Amino acid sequence: MQQLPIPCPGHLIPDATDRFEAAYRAAKAQRAVFVGVEREGEWWTVKADALTAGPGHVVQDAVNVAMRAAIVRLVRAREAGSDAFAGPVYFMLHGVPSEARARELAAAFHAALYGDLEPLRRAVPGADVDE
Hints:
Helix content: 25-40%
Structural class: alpha+beta
Order of helices and strands: HEEHEEHH
Strand content: 15-25%
Largest sheet: 4 strands, antiparallel
Distance between the termini: 36 Å
Shape: globular
Protein backbone atom coordinates (compact mmCIF):
# COMPACT_ATOMS: atom_id res chain seq x y z
CA MET A 1 0.00 0.00 0.00
CA GLN A 2 1.37 3.38 -1.01
CA GLN A 3 1.87 6.01 1.70
CA LEU A 4 -0.79 8.70 1.68
CA PRO A 5 0.08 12.33 1.00
CA ILE A 6 -0.49 14.91 3.72
CA PRO A 7 -3.03 16.37 3.42
CA CYS A 8 -4.69 13.45 1.69
CA PRO A 9 -7.55 14.11 -0.72
CA GLY A 10 -10.66 12.09 0.05
CA HIS A 11 -10.52 10.05 -3.14
CA LEU A 12 -7.16 8.59 -2.04
CA ILE A 13 -8.41 7.41 1.35
CA PRO A 14 -8.25 3.61 1.24
CA ASP A 15 -11.39 1.51 1.33
CA ALA A 16 -10.48 -0.95 4.08
CA THR A 17 -13.66 -2.99 3.77
CA ASP A 18 -12.61 -6.61 4.34
CA ARG A 19 -8.94 -5.45 4.38
CA PHE A 20 -8.62 -3.58 7.66
CA GLU A 21 -5.81 -5.72 9.12
CA ALA A 22 -3.66 -5.45 5.97
CA ALA A 23 -4.22 -1.69 5.68
CA TYR A 24 -3.44 -1.19 9.37
CA ARG A 25 -0.25 -3.26 9.13
CA ALA A 26 0.84 -1.29 6.07
CA ALA A 27 0.39 2.03 7.90
CA LYS A 28 2.32 0.66 10.87
CA ALA A 29 5.17 -0.54 8.62
CA GLN A 30 5.33 2.94 7.05
CA ARG A 31 5.15 4.59 10.49
CA ALA A 32 2.22 6.61 9.21
CA VAL A 33 -1.15 7.57 10.65
CA PHE A 34 -3.71 4.92 9.67
CA VAL A 35 -6.87 6.13 8.00
CA GLY A 36 -9.53 4.23 6.12
CA VAL A 37 -13.20 3.89 5.35
CA GLU A 38 -15.24 0.70 5.48
CA ARG A 39 -18.67 -0.13 4.09
CA GLU A 40 -21.10 -1.59 6.62
CA GLY A 41 -24.29 -2.37 4.76
CA GLU A 42 -25.73 0.93 3.56
CA TRP A 43 -23.54 2.94 5.97
CA TRP A 44 -19.85 3.79 6.14
CA THR A 45 -17.31 3.76 8.95
CA VAL A 46 -14.34 6.10 9.28
CA LYS A 47 -11.26 4.97 11.23
CA ALA A 48 -8.14 6.97 12.04
CA ASP A 49 -5.34 5.88 14.35
CA ALA A 50 -2.12 7.70 15.22
CA LEU A 51 -0.59 4.73 17.08
CA THR A 52 0.61 3.32 13.77
CA ALA A 53 2.83 6.37 13.31
CA GLY A 54 5.03 5.27 16.19
CA PRO A 55 5.99 6.67 19.58
CA GLY A 56 7.53 9.86 18.15
CA HIS A 57 4.21 11.00 16.67
CA VAL A 58 2.46 13.28 19.16
CA VAL A 59 -1.18 14.30 18.88
CA GLN A 60 -1.44 17.81 20.33
CA ASP A 61 -4.14 18.66 22.89
CA ALA A 62 -5.70 21.17 20.48
CA VAL A 63 -6.12 18.40 17.91
CA ASN A 64 -7.86 16.17 20.45
CA VAL A 65 -10.18 19.00 21.44
CA ALA A 66 -11.05 19.72 17.81
CA MET A 67 -11.51 16.05 16.91
CA ARG A 68 -13.76 15.43 19.90
CA ALA A 69 -15.82 18.55 19.13
CA ALA A 70 -16.17 17.44 15.50
CA ILE A 71 -17.34 13.99 16.54
CA VAL A 72 -19.88 15.44 18.98
CA ARG A 73 -21.22 17.72 16.22
CA LEU A 74 -21.43 14.82 13.75
CA VAL A 75 -23.31 12.63 16.23
CA ARG A 76 -25.71 15.45 17.15
CA ALA A 77 -26.34 16.12 13.44
CA ARG A 78 -26.95 12.38 12.95
CA GLU A 79 -24.11 12.16 10.44
CA ALA A 80 -22.53 9.49 12.64
CA GLY A 81 -23.78 6.96 15.15
CA SER A 82 -23.76 7.54 18.89
CA ASP A 83 -21.18 4.75 19.22
CA ALA A 84 -18.47 7.02 17.78
CA PHE A 85 -15.10 6.80 19.52
CA ALA A 86 -13.06 9.94 20.16
CA GLY A 87 -9.39 9.57 20.98
CA PRO A 88 -6.98 10.38 22.33
CA VAL A 89 -5.15 8.73 19.42
CA TYR A 90 -7.84 6.53 17.84
CA PHE A 91 -11.03 7.90 16.28
CA MET A 92 -13.96 6.03 14.73
CA LEU A 93 -17.32 7.00 13.28
CA HIS A 94 -20.02 4.45 12.42
CA GLY A 95 -23.18 5.19 10.48
CA VAL A 96 -21.82 7.79 8.07
CA PRO A 97 -24.51 8.03 5.36
CA SER A 98 -22.37 8.10 2.20
CA GLU A 99 -18.98 7.06 0.90
CA ALA A 100 -18.22 10.60 -0.22
CA ARG A 101 -18.89 12.02 3.26
CA ALA A 102 -16.91 9.21 4.90
CA ARG A 103 -13.94 9.96 2.66
CA GLU A 104 -14.18 13.70 3.36
CA LEU A 105 -14.22 13.08 7.11
CA ALA A 106 -11.42 10.52 6.93
CA ALA A 107 -9.24 12.96 4.99
CA ALA A 108 -9.99 15.67 7.59
CA PHE A 109 -9.15 13.31 10.47
CA HIS A 110 -5.92 12.27 8.75
CA ALA A 111 -4.82 15.88 8.28
CA ALA A 112 -5.76 16.73 11.87
CA LEU A 113 -3.70 13.86 13.25
CA TYR A 114 -0.74 15.41 11.43
CA GLY A 115 -1.52 18.79 13.01
CA ASP A 116 -3.46 20.46 10.17
CA LEU A 117 -6.92 21.37 11.49
CA GLU A 118 -8.07 23.36 8.45
CA PRO A 119 -9.60 20.36 6.58
CA LEU A 120 -11.48 19.43 9.79
CA ARG A 121 -12.80 22.99 10.13
CA ARG A 122 -14.07 22.85 6.55
CA ALA A 123 -15.59 19.37 6.92
CA VAL A 124 -17.20 20.08 10.31
CA PRO A 125 -17.63 23.81 10.86
CA GLY A 126 -17.06 24.77 14.49
CA ALA A 127 -14.96 21.69 15.19
CA ASP A 128 -12.28 23.78 16.87
CA VAL A 129 -14.71 24.78 19.61
CA ASP A 130 -14.74 22.56 22.71
CA GLU A 131 -18.25 21.29 23.34
